[in-house]
Sequence to fold (2022 residues):
Amino acid sequence: MGTPTAKPRRFIKDLAPGEFVEEQVFLINSKDLRTSSNGSLYIHCVLRDKTGQLLARIWQATEPMFEQMPEGGFLRFKGRVENYKGSLQFIIDAMRPCDAAAVDLADFMPQTSEDIGKMFERVKEILRQIKNRHVLNLIKQFVTDEPLMQKFRKAPAAVQMHHAFIGGLLEHTRNVLELALLVIPRYPEVSLDLVLAGVFLHDIGKTEELIYETNFQYTTEGQLIGHIVQAAIWIDQKIKAVEAETGEPFPLDIKNALQHLVLAHHGSYEFGSPKLPAMPEAIALHHLDNLDAKLHIYLDRIKSDPDTANEWTEYVRGLDTKVYKKDVMGIRRERHP
Amino acid sequence: MGTPTAKPRRFIKDLAPGEFVEEQVFLINSKDLRTSSNGSLYIHCVLRDKTGQLLARIWQATEPMFEQMPEGGFLRFKGRVENYKGSLQFIIDAMRPCDAAAVDLADFMPQTSEDIGKMFERVKEILRQIKNRHVLNLIKQFVTDEPLMQKFRKAPAAVQMHHAFIGGLLEHTRNVLELALLVIPRYPEVSLDLVLAGVFLHDIGKTEELIYETNFQYTTEGQLIGHIVQAAIWIDQKIKAVEAETGEPFPLDIKNALQHLVLAHHGSYEFGSPKLPAMPEAIALHHLDNLDAKLHIYLDRIKSDPDTANEWTEYVRGLDTKVYKKDVMGIRRERHP
Amino acid sequence: MGTPTAKPRRFIKDLAPGEFVEEQVFLINSKDLRTSSNGSLYIHCVLRDKTGQLLARIWQATEPMFEQMPEGGFLRFKGRVENYKGSLQFIIDAMRPCDAAAVDLADFMPQTSEDIGKMFERVKEILRQIKNRHVLNLIKQFVTDEPLMQKFRKAPAAVQMHHAFIGGLLEHTRNVLELALLVIPRYPEVSLDLVLAGVFLHDIGKTEELIYETNFQYTTEGQLIGHIVQAAIWIDQKIKAVEAETGEPFPLDIKNALQHLVLAHHGSYEFGSPKLPAMPEAIALHHLDNLDAKLHIYLDRIKSDPDTANEWTEYVRGLDTKVYKKDVMGIRRERHP
Amino acid sequence: MGTPTAKPRRFIKDLAPGEFVEEQVFLINSKDLRTSSNGSLYIHCVLRDKTGQLLARIWQATEPMFEQMPEGGFLRFKGRVENYKGSLQFIIDAMRPCDAAAVDLADFMPQTSEDIGKMFERVKEILRQIKNRHVLNLIKQFVTDEPLMQKFRKAPAAVQMHHAFIGGLLEHTRNVLELALLVIPRYPEVSLDLVLAGVFLHDIGKTEELIYETNFQYTTEGQLIGHIVQAAIWIDQKIKAVEAETGEPFPLDIKNALQHLVLAHHGSYEFGSPKLPAMPEAIALHHLDNLDAKLHIYLDRIKSDPDTANEWTEYVRGLDTKVYKKDVMGIRRERHP
Amino acid sequence: MGTPTAKPRRFIKDLAPGEFVEEQVFLINSKDLRTSSNGSLYIHCVLRDKTGQLLARIWQATEPMFEQMPEGGFLRFKGRVENYKGSLQFIIDAMRPCDAAAVDLADFMPQTSEDIGKMFERVKEILRQIKNRHVLNLIKQFVTDEPLMQKFRKAPAAVQMHHAFIGGLLEHTRNVLELALLVIPRYPEVSLDLVLAGVFLHDIGKTEELIYETNFQYTTEGQLIGHIVQAAIWIDQKIKAVEAETGEPFPLDIKNALQHLVLAHHGSYEFGSPKLPAMPEAIALHHLDNLDAKLHIYLDRIKSDPDTANEWTEYVRGLDTKVYKKDVMGIRRERHP
Amino acid sequence: MGTPTAKPRRFIKDLAPGEFVEEQVFLINSKDLRTSSNGSLYIHCVLRDKTGQLLARIWQATEPMFEQMPEGGFLRFKGRVENYKGSLQFIIDAMRPCDAAAVDLADFMPQTSEDIGKMFERVKEILRQIKNRHVLNLIKQFVTDEPLMQKFRKAPAAVQMHHAFIGGLLEHTRNVLELALLVIPRYPEVSLDLVLAGVFLHDIGKTEELIYETNFQYTTEGQLIGHIVQAAIWIDQKIKAVEAETGEPFPLDIKNALQHLVLAHHGSYEFGSPKLPAMPEAIALHHLDNLDAKLHIYLDRIKSDPDTANEWTEYVRGLDTKVYKKDVMGIRRERHP
Fold:
């Protein structure tokens, strides 16, 4: 075969019925070896890139062909796109291994639509507005922990509920920081310093709770300990580092308050918070976090719903309701001409 | 006795132990005729003005004296302020009827610390930013309903939980409108028009749900129907008025959306919402409303807690926790030097 | 083909294995274009009439054939009935459009087994027993609203739980009115007038909450506002009409009570009542409504359960239990010889 | 003193302020020895008869006087009735033992206003309508168990919630039997035999669960086992007796069904039913039982509420709401002219 | 065909891909007649023996072949084992009836790995340590009820959650008795006699609640009455037998206590206990029972999880979590070299 | 006055009516300055030592006397014990400061009845049975942290529910360790090492969560962070110390497991566990912990209930039931002759 790189990348969302595909790399999301009633085998699989998923089939398959496909890994495919029950189906004609080095992971994971570098700069810019030097010292310990920040810039904010994409944690954190900047000054008896630090730290444990190399999953640490307690532990560690650097004790009250903000941010026991908000800053963090996360869920469900004939989505478990998709005010129509 | 108006008003929060009080009008919050063990009767009562409550006693009382005191009404008192178990106690020497016309009700009900007129202007100014003419027409029906607006400017936002004072509904509504103005433009797919209208209408039924002449109580309508359904009914009525004025039908979608915003704003069935938020605007309204209401509760509990020796308030039922009062960041100290 | 009307109607429940079907119209409940492992397409669909559902297949299908089938619409079918896994399967040989005018909708929707006209007369007869003239005036406003009554006679009482058939709302309302007539006079301190009016109005909002043209679904209004609040709004509107007609104000107490009865009839917040029953009439309405609705669910599950070998139905979600079908007392056997 | 029986019985509800009371027997509900601030002792106690409670005091009391008063027992009192804070207060001048034989217990316990004998006859009359001879045999075993029936005629239906008076169990059972007679024939597929038997047996365990000699309390059996399981055990025992008498086995299906009706009649686990209703008869029993019990609670709260100035009762824990007392339809006014 | 017994038993867990199977009897767990897209029929079924389940197919099937297969019954099979999607699949070539007498049921039901006889002896040995003669007499009534004990030795402890195998009830009961023997003597104020009797009786009703001939199911009695109330009834019956034998009344306190222990052992209403633990012995029984049952569930999920590549099981409904399978301490590895 | 030490200590539980008390030190639990109806002041206070509480009064009090009494502190009292409403009352004649050095705190706090030193030795002896060297190293870090162990030996296990006395945490921990030693070896696939370590650490955070100098209260850290998360943080810190000492990394799996055991030990979200038990060791720890804690509550309620005439305690909130106190088996009588 010719040079793979000669073929421009065809993203799944751009494929059209009847199109012939060559030398395209896809992530194998799942695979199934099935037998047809006439005894022949075929492979039913789901391919994925960052723009969506594609149902694919290999007729007249063999077990070795099936074994060769790495679930969660990549292959280079050739075949034809067809229309099938209103959706696309990819009939694979051939597939061959692809050089791992040639794969740009960024092409295969859903990703924030914003610039990660700029978002991270903005987060740091906002955090520099913290006035209390103890809080600022602590934040610096996190921000200058480059291995952690690398994960922070890349992690999704959740496995599936909201901001479930590369850079999602960063985007969500940036969003809530912006909300805090706008809202908290209206309540002068609420400490903006505490809220900003709390927003930055509230989900930082997700860098450890989630795996996001080629798909999104919970880590064992995530399931045994969780991002909430993880962040409380890291605050403890970083405060020790601050004390080592400054040579003075970190104020106990501030440590307690920051750990409390993180521990209480889910707002209720049933969502895994071991403590309920007991400070104004904690309840503010809880609602600002939810405002952004929930709005993202609603808007995402509306945008991604495939059934355009229906004004309502399916029932959404986490919301305990269906979502009404109709653009009543014509506002979304204006934005997507 | 001399001319009552000659005596300047002494508010309860300004009374000092040892002070002699004359010709002062108080609201009689509650009264009790008690017998002492030696057989004599005394009256134990609680007096109130807008600045607080005062425990009072009349020794050597008689039943006619007791009958003469109107619960929820006013009398003119003379007596002496004493220190009693760390609080003040008012020993009444004499009391006599007071001319209703001479009473300024505003002196006796807790009241917003802000200017009601200015707040109302600001509310109207914000609502004028609504662009959709149908929504704007509907809002005008409410804003130009002067009897309703009189109540709207005066009603508390709740009997006791948050903004439980004259002007509280207006102050809370203004606050949430300001939050919406700041926050919603960050989510361009969320209709600011709908959110602003929803915020204005979400608690407007409290004008009918609550009594707030001389104390705060639920009305019978409030208990049988509630402010949530009341507002949905008023929207229906006002839309009919809009249609009568404009001669064109009001868009059904917008009517449905606005009624839904009001019906769903409590966010869960257990708090009396017959519908759960099914639109982005509905979930945004729910969290913005809660952010302001809950912050007010936390800050109010901290400010009003009488036990200054303890860093924690008593358990607060609605929050399911105690509130931590300590001014960890020194922010409240700065504001109240 | 010959004249369609020449063929007598064959209802699904009367079809027998081996039977040839010609010129029969069925409602297309759902359709699916599927590919077989040898690459050929077939259509898998579910047809429906008022007596039941029928699984059908078209072998060697094409996409245009699939497109031609209107989901929720009607076609005229020809084919053969076969036995398949203990149930019937319809192998379609041909299908062609059918003249909408020729379709009697009543043949395709499950329908009450009683006479709709007689039931409606009985409802009105019972309502005429209301003695209070204000309540009676209000009820008249509803009963003489012919467009509403047309829907009231036709609407189901639910999408699936109970009385989920054409005329179901009427049948259920009639049933509960009869129960009220029998039961309430035993409690002379409970107002029969209020209960009768409450029963008539409690589910009337379902005329707007549900769609029941060719299948049963929730409307957008139903999902955003709901039948409970809808009825409260209608009471408000009809009372305004009464006042316009009579020229005297409608008693506020009665309005409040009737709206409360409707709002509280689900009996708990979790089932969407924004208020809990606070009057004897409200609790009576709640239990009478449930008695009929729940009995209908139990009896319907027993009758419709296809697995005759088992004495128990499957787990029923709304009841949180399986239903025991055995006719322990031989009472149902006696009635269905 | 003179002959006690010379004095006619003065019931508490008939006492008037200023009245002198002599030779009257009251049940001592509770007693307290209190010290006044001048060091003298007084007794504060609550007296009771079937018509109500009376607060009483003995000034200048001694410990022997206090010891002499039997809590839950009877004394003969002399004293004066006074008005105290809107209620009556009884100032005791003297008290002395009273001959137990001279006390008619019926004067001291709240009691059904109906004729116990007639109600019991009516219950038996209804039960004789049961057609199935097995069910009838079983019911006979209960009805002819005279010691049990003595308790059945006397027991209250509850300690405080509903029908909490002597004969309350009988009255409630009779009520629900009448409801079943009226309602069940409208559902011909529901076995009237099973429902009648189930109604009769559903609360019969309360004869063992409650004490009702001089006050209403739970027995140890009631708290360890409960009336629900108790009734299931008795059905087992009585069926054994039927089998012994008839010499034939009792149908297992009917035994299971009857025990299920009893076990499931509370309708939900949280109210102590170990099984949820799984038969039409079980759900019918649940709602008929609740209809009568709940109506009784609402009507009783309205009638017994002492605060006539307020249209609402206090919050009622078991109903999770206040009760609206206003006689909106003038129906209760008509009955109590 | 040759003599069936000539072929040694091949258990499902020992089958290998490519293996030819002859004359093997399997239990038919479920069956399905399916049509392929080319119109031919095939049978898809699940076979079972005590070691596991096996997916099987018959290509080119006919309806009579399908009818011939008894669900829940046995056939003798011939065919070939293949690898299919990582699991085994059995392609059936022939099947014929098998002589019921030739089937050893023990080969087809999952069964305790311990010796039933020895476990039962141990149970009796422990129960003989009961010192109170009344309790001992009662236990003897159960232990000498051989028909009951036969079921007791054979019944599973549950349909699927824990100890769901023949002998499971006995094994679980023995386990909890051993725990009680170890633990209770550390609390000398807790009656070992009551706890031992309570442990023995707590699940004994499962002998009646469950069917366990060829599969595990609930009986009608189990679903209408349940093992908890069943045991309470049996205690009542056996106590009557004790009284008949000894000629003296059984102490009421002990009867109440034992019935309470059984009724309260699920520990909460939502799990079907009509009473909550009100005695130290009852709470001890609840936790000892749960300790063994829950440990069995966790260990069983770990052992039986087929996905060896994942450190976590699927979400387990009854535990509301996934189970972490990793042998962190190397303890299970040591035991299964 | 004479030498205070000349008077032997009179504990509250040993005081008798009529007794004169001199030179006795009590802890002032609470105090109240009250006015009598004749205008004189008196002090109503509650005194406490480790054996109980004593209601006391000072007649003819003054404000300076009231100010002189340190709440939570000690004074030396003189006065007379009287009988008052069935309980004792102490009429104070005089009081004077007491030398703090002369107070033995152990006399004033409820305390374990066992030897703290011996219990601690036993805890260490059991922990030495841990075989895994990593776990052992970690435990050593805790056991050799003498400031922490001082608190560990002294802290109560709770503010009021169970083991609410000095040494209670140690006693409860020792108890659960003993249970684990007895029970866990019966389940060879459950790691005894993990369970023992988990038991030792599960409540160790209570040393920081509770104050127990002169009364039992939650600390601010306890309320903001809680003992569950605190212990997880300490495990993190101590593991860092182990790594520093050993120079090798601590196994991540073991760290995760131990933190999970601590985080999940409350067993449900509503009791503040941020994670549910996901390992066999975690569920075992949960039930062993509860077995000891709950048994202690039941036995303690029985022993401490003052109302000996009643077989039942009052309703116990945490148990959702009353406790049955009767010594049915005569077992407690035997132990307390």
